[in-house]
């Protein structure tokens, strides 16, 4: 591992000149911060636009043969204002003109959207007085549009090995024919993670506008405590259940390289934020790490006497789902029952057919449909090593009059997932949170 920090700054961290100043202070504050990955300018306030959204809009206008001049003007003004307030030496107008010309000529959506990061990267590199390295030379995609992980590793090493400090824009790379390809939305996080992995950095900092993750959604729980440390696996489980700050795919490269990720707040740089690490079996017992959940699930509960002895029953049920292209979330089972939890959006318009087919193929004694369910995951790496976690959860739920309709403890023993009626969702999350916090 090298004594290098890769620092990625999100859109709100680079939304205007004032934010750029904060970023400069942070970058200069630690010599080890050598590779800087910017997003496109984000919102300055609630009603503001994200530059990436505006670029997508430009592309949509061109596709429909409508003038995109007005939208582009907003983009242009934002960059020009940032560049002039920061007194950068480069003439951003030249680059803006070229980008505009290419969009007008029918550039792809990916090329168009990627210019948000490209232009921001040019300004930031100039402002910091460091080299600009175009991500099209460092982040490589296959000709089918998938990330070429090995190729990227080589390209990043090659491009960066002799560079003391550089800005590499996030979100995009290039295919072998040179065509620009972006990651999915929020993908600058992935760029930073890849660079951290390939330069064998000792830390990947992800700078945003919150001081890390909170134990629960602050819109549901009043003033939830921050999470200081979380393992990659726990984060994956919480993110899957709806907690977002970091692009989910950004975890994998850092995890592969065993590099900790520190979520930090550009507006409160002294806050420690959340550090994401490998589960090293630390003695953080007794407590949970976080709670997250989602609504809009349907449970298909199937009952059949002696199901436990019938070989192939589960496979038959699942093959029906497969035939109808329905993916399922959980499948807790009892002796004579099996419950299949599916997201509403998966089963919409197909439920009747799926049920009919399960009846025909599997001959169950009963099938019950339970709509309007919510799933809540309580996640904690200490769970497997602690006695009494589930007792605490269920006692608190009972005290708060929440009817638990389903329980599933993953075999990792790192989470307990419960199903409750959607109307009890907020109450259940609060009950679990207050049992531990
Ligand atoms: N600017 C891109 C987006 O809005 C990528 C990113 O911010 O990470 O999705």
From TrEMBL:
EC number: 2.7.2.4
Catalysed reaction equations from the record: L-aspartate + ATP = 4-phospho-L-aspartate + ADP
Pathway as given in its UniProt record: Amino-acid biosynthesis; L-threonine biosynthesis; L-threonine from L-aspartate: step 1/5; Amino-acid biosynthesis; L-lysine biosynthesis via DAP pathway; (S)-tetrahydrodipicolinate from L-aspartate: step 1/4; Amino-acid biosynthesis; L-methionine biosynthesis via de novo pathway; L-homoserine from L-aspartate: step 1/3
rRNA processing in keyword set: no
Highest taxon of source: Bacteria
Transmembrane among keywords: no
Keywords: Amino-acid biosynthesis, ATP-binding, Diaminopimelate biosynthesis, Kinase, Lysine biosynthesis, Nucleotide-binding, Transferase
GO terms, molecular function: aspartate kinase activity
Top-level EC class as recorded in UniProt: transferase
Short name of one Pfam family: ACT_9
ACT domain location: 378-437
Free-text function comment from the UniProt entry: Catalyzes the phosphorylation of the beta-carboxyl group of aspartic acid with ATP to yield 4-phospho-L-aspartate, which is involved in the branched biosynthetic pathway leading to the biosynthesis of amino acids threonine, isoleucine and methionine.
Family to which this protein belongs: Belongs to the aspartokinase family.
Name of this chain's protein: Aspartokinase
Origin species: Clostridium brassicae
Lineage: Bacteria, Bacillati, Bacillota, Clostridia, Eubacteriales
